[in-house]
Write a structure and sequence with these properties.
The protein has 9 helices and 17 strands. It is an alpha+beta fold.
Length: 356
């Protein structure tokens, strides 16, 4: 399937205005568009947030029958739509349905004389769906005819792209989900890892589109081990869902310092992690003292190096959070960082349990 990359990610939230305030104030997004009954979208209000090449939509329901109302009731605020940019949305929709995806919304076209956007929607995992999007004409018109664009000013944020999305699945569903993304969307499995953290086990597989523009990290708990943080997510979220969205950045040290100054809290890393780090991964692009101070992790694959850090979850259910990643040639994920990242989340959850 002709999938170019992530077109946008839509979150269903209880209060789009409040969530937008948080993401704009703390993470540097800006409101770029708005839609609702007055623009032709009944039953909802949506805000478009932008930063770099990242497009986030925040949608709140205006009635109990809207899908956003049902989603928030079951899962709390969270990612409900992951949209793929594609060369032909109608053709991609037909292929996906023929390969076993459930049809959610047939092809629709939005146009205003300057731009044309075609969309169609199919099933993904859990209650998350995939919107297939093709854009033609004037750039910047996100949903012509039904979304009013606003004057956003300069883009001086530190986030540039959606690098990947991490998904938690119930035990026993990982293999089937990998198979579905290979068959329906033409993804390839590029990485797999077994993670053992404090007696809990998790199995992770990474699938990626042929263009390398869309990457999913799929995780299920090892049900033969003691319950852990993936089981907690599945319980608190109410089933399969997006655990975190990873944003690419060109300078992770600058990004972490900037976001910390704006109120974002990041997961901590023990100082011992940095002892001998240079000997493990080679010459660093960022000063070791900065990495140690900020808690940034470093790893590598056969193609290059990567720097990563998790935010602490600001979600009331402690489910959804974000990741920052800076890549220097690395195309996949390093084995040692996966363990370190989940150990960091384990420490965060333990601290939360002590406070409560």
């Amino acid at each position: 399937m002709d999938i170019h990359g992530f077109d946008h990610i839509e979150l269903y939230v209880g209060d789009a205005n409040a969530t937008a305030f948080l993401l704009c104030t703390a993470f540097g997004f800006r409101v770029a568009g708005a839609s609702g009954p007055e623009t032709g979208l009944t039953g909802q209000r949506s805000l478009l947030l932008r930063q770099g090449g990242v497009n986030l939509i925040l949608t709140s329901a205006l009635s109990g029958t809207h899908p956003a109302a049902r989603y928030v009731s079951r899962h709390g605020d969270g990612v409900a739509v992951i949209a793929f940019a594609t060369g032909d949305a109608e053709q991609a929709y037909a292929r996906a349905v023929a390969q076993g995806a459930a049809a959610v919304s047939p092809p629709l076209t939005y146009a205003d004389g300057q731009a044309e956007v075609a969309t169609a929607t199919v099933s993904g995992f859990g209650d998350v769906v995939h919107r297939l999007v093709t854009r033609r004409g004037a750039a910047g018109r996100f949903l012509p005819g039904v979304m009013e664009m606003t004057d956003t000013g300069p883009d001086d944020g530190v986030l540039s792209t959606v690098d990947h999305v991490a998904v938690c699945l119930p035990g026993g569903e990982l293999a089937e989900t990998v198979h579905r993304y290979r068959e329906v969307f033409g993804f390839s499995e590029i990485f797999d890892e077994y993670i053992d953290v404090g007696g809990q086990g998790m199995i992770s597989k990474v699938v990626q589109s042929e263009s390398r523009g869309v990457t999913f990290t799929l995780i299920e708990p090892d049900v033969t081990r003691r319950p852990g943080q993936i089981d907690d997510f599945l319980s608190w979220h109410g089933g399969a869902g997006v655990q975190h969205v990873a944003f690419g950045t060109g300078d992770i040290v600058h990004a972490v310092r900037t976001l910390t100054g704006q109120g974002v809290a990041f997961a901590s890393t023990p100082g011992s992690y940095y002892d001998g780090l240079a000997s493990r991964v080679g010459e660093l692009e960022r000063p070791l003292s900065d990495l140690r101070e900020l808690g940034v992790l470093v790893d590598q694959d056969r193609w290059g190096r990567m720097y990563q850090i998790f935010t602490r979850s600001m979600h009331v259910r402690r489910t959804l959070f974000f990741e920052l990643i800076e890549r220097h040639g690395a195309l996949t994920f390093g084995s040692s960082n996966i363990r370190a990242l989940y150990e960091a989340k384990e420490r965060e959850l333990q601290r939360a349990q002590v406070r409560s």
